[in-house]
Every structure is written in C-alpha cells, then in structure tokens.
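Thread amino acids onto this structure.
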C-alpha cells in the first residue's frame, strides 16, 4: 500500500511530463467515495477545484470513465470542459455537451429494455437491491441486500441476460447486464487515448480507478502504451491488480491530482 506521495517515484514523474497529458479517471470510489446508495455519491469541492485547474492547464485533457451513464457521471462531478465516457464505453459526452453513441448499438436497446422489464419484479422482491436502467446497460446494486440473497439474485440476472443474448459482468457490490459487443473500459481508454493523441511520441497518459471493471482499462492501457501510468485505488491493499501503483482512497487520489495540477500549472 502506498500513499500518493510515495507512489510518485522519479521514474513515474518523468512519465507524466509529456504533452499532451491525458488524465483518465473513474468516478465512484476514485473521485467520489463509495456510498450505500449510488444517488448519494458526490465529489468533494476541493477535488472539483483541482479538476478545474487541470482542465485549464495547457495540453491537458481530463476524461471521466464511468460505469454510470455519461450524463449522470458528468452531473456528479460537475466540472466543465471534461470528456465523459459512460456505460463503460457505450456512450461519450464531449466537453461541449454533445452525446455520442455507437450507431451499431441501436439494435441492442430493445433487448436491454426487455431485460429491464423482466428484472424489475425480480430485483424488487429482494430487500435492499436496486435496478438502475442506463439505457445501454443495466446495473443491479446489492450493497444493501442480505448476503444470502445475493447468489440467487445473481443467478436470476444471469438467466435473464443469457436468454436475451446479453452478457452479465461483475463489479463492486453490483452486477451489470450489457450488450454482447466487446466494449468495456479497456476499449474505451484506448479509443480516447487515440482520439486525443495520448499515444503519440512525447505524450503522457494516466488512468486511475478502483473497481473490477477498471482492470480492463489497466490491462489494455499498459498493453497499448507501456509508459502509461496506471493507478489502483484500494483501501484494503489485498486485491491483485494489473495497475502498477496502488493508493488508499479518494483522498489520496486528490493528493495525486493536486501534485499533477501543480506540476503542469
């Protein structure tokens, strides 16, 4: 386990000196502390302020990469000028507020809507569970559910997903139903890195995340750009990760962003 200052070795600092600098950040558990109810998540004012400094810095691009819907993630962070990749890469909101989706996903929306209809009574019957419909994906939150209720709930979610030719994935206290298309945070960070020239000679790129779904981003980014900096947020320090650096919590992420903003400012 390391705090933000210990994580910043001279070698990593050197890898963050490039231009442009692409700063990719998960939201829940990274910028915002994990809370029992997703709708209660918030970003601290001081973290919002340092993100605004980074957005204003020369040749720096800030990208939120979230499992939430893109507009939902953007509304939680409330910082102008950022890119927001939502639904694990199925949609993007540009800094100008324009929503982009893959036209090929239009055929999947009916299956997702049907899955939502089938899952509503199933999830409603489990006290503490909640179904979140994000149009292109569904999330079933079970953080507040009894532990013995989770395995049968997961089994029902998987049954519905497979029956509609969708796929189920796991996160922290959550299962998700997604289109079968190979889209995840790994494909998302590579696409955004290419779009913003983060893999060009002399560029720098960093991704910070805390969830199982962020492991896709760590692996894909390091495969595409070995000099990329990958940071895992993990209070326990017990989970194995493809990230090269671990910090404790969103407060440590804030420390890192403060250093980055001062370094680039």
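Threaded sequence (265 positions):
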């Amino acid at each position: 386990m390391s705090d933000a200052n210990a994580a910043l070795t001279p070698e990593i600092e050197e890898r963050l000196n490039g231009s442009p600098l692409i700063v990719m950040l998960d939201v829940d558990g990274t910028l915002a502390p994990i809370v029992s109810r997703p709708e209660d998540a918030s970003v601290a004012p001081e973290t919002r302020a340092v993100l605004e400094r980074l957005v204003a810095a020369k040749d720096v691009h800030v990208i939120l990469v979230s499992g939430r819907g893109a507009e939902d993630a953007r509304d939680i962070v409330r910082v102008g000028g950022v890119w927001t990749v939502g639904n694990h890469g199925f949609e993007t909101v540009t800094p100008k507020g324009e929503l982009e989706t893959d036209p090929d996903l239009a055929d999947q929306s009916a299956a997702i809507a049907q899955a939502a209809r089938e899952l509503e009574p199933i999830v409603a019957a489990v006290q503490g569970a909640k179904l979140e419909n994000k149009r292109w994906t569904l999330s079933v939150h079970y953080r507040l559910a009894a532990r013995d209720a989770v395995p049968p709930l997961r089994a029902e979610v998987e049954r519905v997903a497979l029956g509609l030719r969708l796929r189920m994935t796991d996160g922290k206290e959550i299962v998700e139903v997604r289109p079968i298309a190979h889209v995840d945070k790994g494909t998302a960070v590579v696409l955004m890195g290419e779009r913003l020239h983060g893999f060009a000679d002399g560029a720098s790129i960093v991704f910070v995340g805390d969830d199982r779904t962020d492991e896709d981003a760590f692996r894909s980014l390091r495969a595409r750009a070995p000099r990329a900096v990958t940071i895992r947020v993990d209070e326990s320090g017990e989970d194995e990760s493809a990230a090269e650096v671990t910090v404790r919590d969103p407060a440590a992420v804030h420390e890192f962003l403060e250093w980055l903003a001062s370094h680039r400012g």
